[in-house]
Design brief:
Among the domains are: about 45 residues; about 100 residues, Receptor-associated Protein, CATH 1.20.81.30. About 75% of the residues lie in helices and about 5% in strands. Strands 2-1-3 form a three-stranded antiparallel sheet, with helices on one face. Strand 1 and strand 2 form a beta hairpin. Helix 8 runs parallel beside helix 16. The protein is flat. The termini are far apart.
């Protein structure tokens, strides 16, 4: 529904202005008159720059979605109508993209769509997991309970994502700084030494000549190197977006990485078990739950294994049976799932597994950081130290000649 900017006067002559959401100008005029305001100007609000250029839209972070979900649960529990809840949350949201989306959802609900159907029209913000849990809450009449579970699920998933990013950011940052310092030395510092050595004449030691040759090459090709790195990043991201085969192979490679592959697997286990536990506890059928969990796994290898598990369950097997041959999910997790199936406490067991692997990710990230820190420092110090030593070798030779 469009938004109109208006200006008007009250009965005592005071000037007022504001914005209203309405079907047309006549509806705005009628609404203002009912409030005792005589409209003098009503104009359709122009679109924001973010609405025209979608790439400028502020991203909706998990934190924003958690706040929205928790506040929504409190309002529903207090007995407020759904449309009124959306009106309040849309007006008070600090994220403009989320606020606009909430208003659109409210309009769709007012037009007769269910809440879940309205959310499904905005997949960039509300994923399949969110939509299906809300649908289960609407059908079961426990929307407030479902929203609270969703908020917890989002918080746990966000924590896992931040842990994994923390493990990746440290080595990438240190390595980037080390490469940047080396390039700066080769491009800016070494040429000064080279000119000084040329003025003195004579032959240079082997290490020094090697560094000078590398400096000359870097000066001539530094822009090509930067362009090459950018090109590799762009081609990789485009290939992952467009090629299923390339995405499959890179996802497979991630799980095989010497240090990070183990963390990726533990993150996958924690995410899978917690999401599946939340969906089962919310009354989502197991086959639907596995289908949604596989699509939100974020890795095609894991998605493939979960789809195979789903197919086996549809043939009458238990969850644990197909997972026993898994190369991603560990045996302990499979055994605990089997116990949960036998005892009928599946969702409880899945949440216990998720809590255990959350802690395992914490330990693995801490161990990885403590191990990589000295290795990266040695690499950085060794690279810079080697260059400095190579530059000082001729100075010692010159000093001996002068002596």
């Amino acid at each position: 529904m469009p938004i109109y900017n208006w200006q008007g006067r009250t009965r005592d002559g005071a000037k007022k202005k504001g914005a209203l959401e309405a079907a047309n100008e006549a509806a705005v005029t009628a609404q203002l008159r009912s409030q005792g305001i005589l409209p003098t100007k009503v104009k359709l609000k122009p679109k924001d720059v973010e609405e025209i250029f979608t790439f400028l839209q502020k991203r909706v972070k998990t934190k924003d979605l958690v706040i929205f979900t928790r506040q929504f649960a409190v309002m529903i529990d207090a007995g407020l109508p759904l449309v009124q809840c959306l009106q309040i949350l849309g007006d008070q949201s600090e994220n403009p993209t989320l606020a606009r989306t909430i208003r659109e959802v409210r309009n769709e609900v007012e037009a007769g769509a269910t809440f879940a159907e309205s959310l499904a029209k905005h997949p960039k913000i509300f994923d399949d997991l969110y939509v299906n849990l809300v649908a289960a809450g609407e059908v079961g009449g426990i929307l407030d309970t479902i929203l609270n579970r969703l908020a917890i699920q989002l918080e746990k998933s966000d924590k896992l994502a931040r842990q994994f990013k923390g493990a990746m950011i440290y080595p990438i940052t240190v390595s980037t700084i080390a490469v940047g310092v080396v390039v700066l030395l080769l491009v800016k510092v070494i040429p000064v030494f080279e000119k000084m050595f040329a003025d003195f004449g004579g032959s240079l030691p082997g290490p020094t000549q090697t560094v000078i040759d590398l400096s000359n090459w870097m000066q001539a090709n530094v822009l090509y190197c930067i362009a090459g790195v950018i090109a590799v990043i762009v081609v990789h991201s485009q290939a992952r977006a467009r090629s299923v085969a390339y995405r499959y192979q890179t996802d497979k490679l991630k799980l095989m990485l010497p240090l990070f592959g183990n963390i990726i697997k533990k993150v996958a286990v924690a995410r899978f078990t917690r999401t599946l536990g939340t969906m089962i506890a919310s009354g989502v059928p197991i086959l639907d739950a596995l289908d949604i969990v596989s699509k939100t796994a974020g890795n095609m290898i894991i998605e493939e294994e979960l789809q195979e598990t789903r197919a086996s369950i549809s043939e009458g097997k238990t969850i644990a049976e197909p997972l026993m041959n898994s190369k991603v999910f560990p045996g302990m997790m499979v055994q605990m799932i089997a116990v949960g199936e036998e005892t009928g406490n599946m969702e409880v067991m899945l949440n216990k597994i998720a809590d255990f692997y959350d802690d395992e990710v914490d330990v693995a990230v801490a161990a990885l950081t403590s191990m990589l820190e000295p290795v990266l420092m040695v690499f950085m110090g060794g690279a810079i130290g080697s260059i400095l030593i190579a530059m000082y070798l001729p100075i010692f030779t010159i000093a001996d000649t002068i002596g």
